[in-house]
């Protein structure tokens, strides 16, 4: 077990070799999975009334892999509301974290630009003579706190916090279910990998580049249908002609478990963006296999989150544009 040590003496201070915040988060997730809890299997109808994971003050929803990270945090720590604030933002309003509470790191998009340089070391120019600019979105870690861990510094600040939480939860508008399901059908229905309906199981065949799904009538809920379909479509993004992930692993192998984790995370992100339930069933063995691979450390988790975000973007389109960054 990692420990924290303190070294005294001239020119020496504290040296910490305990687990990092990322390692603690990964350990919490492993424990959750080993207890048979899947943090990415919340029914939209159960959480839709409180809305997407978002900044409580601005109302801006978190994008990319952040919904999955925050859902994980909420499950590990028992948060009921998907409302978050940065420390500086909360402090400016007179709200502070409760003693002993911990923040969660999310990834904030930022736009980067630079001149395109040719092989001769000079800036490349377009037909009109202007210098070509390369632009890309990168992500910077930022710490946020759930509103459940915030308290007002004065009675007036506490009242303002309570009112802000009530206003944020009361402002959510949930679209009618038929509208949301029709939107999900429109998005998933145009994915170029063909889906064959019928049979007794759902799977993706990399060799045939085809998705097999049971008959629609065999699903008891819309969440089961769309969650399963999104999961299999996520697998298909890993084809060598798309995102080129390793799809060669057999059941029970480490590579198979990693790919199933990617598909699970991607299905969650897709269904959250489409505002539909994500209720595809997972055998308990899947949870155990994910826990096993995640024991290797947070790099495995964040690689899976990155791959899942790319898969969700391939199916739904990017949810962070250059203009928004």
Biggest sheet, spatial arrangement of strands? 3-4-7-6
Q: Estimate the global geometry from the Cα principal axes.
A: globular
Low-confidence sequence ranges = 1-10
Mean pLDDT: 85
User: Which class do the helix and strand fractions yield?
Assistant: alpha+beta
Largest sheet: 4 strands, mixed
Distance between the termini: 40 Å
Please report the total strand number as a whole number.
11
Rg to the nearest angstrom?
A: 22 Å
Task: Provide an overview of this structure.
This protein has 325 residues and is of the alpha+beta class. The chain has a domain of 151 residues. Helix content is 40%, strand content 17%. It is built from ten helices and eleven strands. The protein has a four-stranded mixed beta sheet with strand order 3-4-7-6. Strands 9-11-10 form a three-stranded mixed beta sheet, covered by helices on one side. Strands 1-2 form a two-stranded antiparallel ribbon. A hairpin with a 7-residue loop joins strand 1 and strand 2. Helix 1 crosses helix 3 and helix 7 packs across helix 8. It is globular. 30% of the residues are buried.
Write the layout of secondary structure elements.
Blueprint: E1 4-6, E2 14-16, H1 21-34, H2 44-47, E3 54-55, H3 66-77, E4 83-86, H4 87-92, E5 95-97, E6 104-115, E7 133-146, E8 150-152, H5 155-170, H6 177-188, E9 195-197, E10 203-205, E11 210-213, H7 222-236, H8 254-274, H9 284-294, H10 298-316
Parallel strand pairs: 3-4, 9-11
Antiparallel strand pairs: 1-2, 4-7, 5-8, 6-7, 10-11
Helix pairs in contact: 1-3, 1-9, 6-7, 7-8, 8-9, 8-10
